[in-house]
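Reading a protein record of the kind used here takes only a little practice. To see the layout at work, look at the sequence and tokens printed below.
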Amino acid sequence: QVHLVESGGGLVQAGGSLRLSCVASGRTLNIYAMGWFRQAPGKEREFVAGISWSSANTFHGDSVKGRFTIHRDNAAKTVWLQMNSLKPEDTAVYYCAATDRLEIGTVVNQYDYWGQGTQVTVSS
């Protein structure tokens, strides 16, 4: 089994920054693209950012483009989400996801493995 564990969430003031980390363990050999999603209360899970195995390709959702950056270190089996200029509407549970697909997926059903989530709360 593949396990993904997120960390780095917390409470931050609007305009501040956080960096989320996701560490993969278990049978990770066939994991290629990875991504971050978020889900606020009463809302659908939303794509935030995705990254290819080599980091050559990244894609960020429109709502976070220019503020958030995804990157990874395959030797460390870790993917990060650097979040800058945070807004109250960024408040959500953030989930790390992984897939054996070669391309970056932008919807939930394109991913095979999920972390437990980490809460990010941005105050005004």
